[in-house]
Amino acid sequence: MCVSISQVSRFRIHSFGSSCCERVHGWIKNSSSLKLLDVRASSVDGKARWIRRNVSTTTQGSRGNIKSSVLGGTVPLTRIIDEESRTKVQPFGNLQQRLAQDKDLPKLLTVIVSDLETTGLNRKRERIIEIAAQDLAGGGYSTFQTLVNPGDVPVTNTDIHGIRTDMVCRPEVPRMEELIPIFLQYVESRQKPGGYVMLVAHNGKSFDFRFLINEFNRCSYEIPHNWLLLDSLPLGREHMKSLDPTGKPKASLKVLQEHYSLTREGDAHRALSDVLLLSKVFQKLTIDLKLSLSDLVLRCHTASDIIAVMAKNKKA
């Protein structure tokens, strides 16, 4: 039986509600630090309200001064990841085929939609300046967003995303080496015990995943071995091609937004806005293409796959 993501309760997109949606634009425009967004609201008199609290974080065993804004409750950011178990790569063989055949796949897989913005387009010398992610299961603290301090690398493509150098080159904005442990903690907190993560990005194979791998390597980290990387752009092209077999399919996020008559929350080419939109687009694509979770897994890449392509291109 063909099961789309939206047909599996674990992978439904959480409805943020009108109160949260009104604040999305403000979150994206806010130039300060990291946010974990809790989709739960507290209520004393029966009316939902948002509570903003600051929490401290622990990075690689030492307490840092990264300012984190959390909506509602507390979040386990102080838990330290075991470095050895996180970075150790085990020989899985063909992970995609083995996982796709697992009858318990829905119980093992966490789907996280992601997006990032950068100082420029050159993957070798540019830096990430914004990251956002959303677990399609929804629930508390399912959404992650932060600006990233690129150090001495200036922002040269402000015209694309609206992020200026002075917005990110600030002491309160975390650098990538400080942020990676926190981002890994976020992903691990969403991951099912003994399970795997499917990280989805639009044009991820050519852009997002390569930037992420380069930044991890620069900071002496490895992409965890239980992450699968899925580029949603080929899915969009496949669907648009089916509608017009004779034409050259365009499948940018904007084209797919217009095709599905979706409303964008916030500005285009800001990480959180793109993530919220891609979450909706991705589910619609899986339905239209009649893709099961196993189908999606087989279309994934591992970090090793992409590293091999990058090395081949470098030699060429």
TrEMBL record:
Keyword Magnesium: yes
Cellular component GO terms, alphabetical: mitochondrion; plastid
Gene3D superfamilies, A to Z: Ribonuclease H-like superfamily/Ribonuclease H
Domain named Exonuclease: residues: 110-291
One GO-annotated biological process of the protein: DNA catabolic process
CDD domains (alphabetical): DEDDh
Pfam families cross-referenced by the UniProt entry: RNase_T (PF00929)
UniProtKB keywords: Exonuclease, Hydrolase, Magnesium, Metal-binding, Nuclease
Annotated GO MF terms: 3'-5'-DNA exonuclease activity; metal ion binding; nucleic acid binding
Cofactor(s) required, per the database record: Mg(2+)
Domain of life: Eukaryota
Similarity comment: Belongs to the exonuclease superfamily. TREX family.
PANTHER family: LD40940P (PTHR13058:SF19), THREE PRIME REPAIR EXONUCLEASE 1, 2 (PTHR13058)
Protein name, as recorded: Exonuclease domain-containing protein
UniProt organism field: Arabidopsis lyrata subsp. lyrata
The organism's taxonomic lineage, starting at the top: Eukaryota, Viridiplantae, Streptophyta, Embryophyta, Tracheophyta
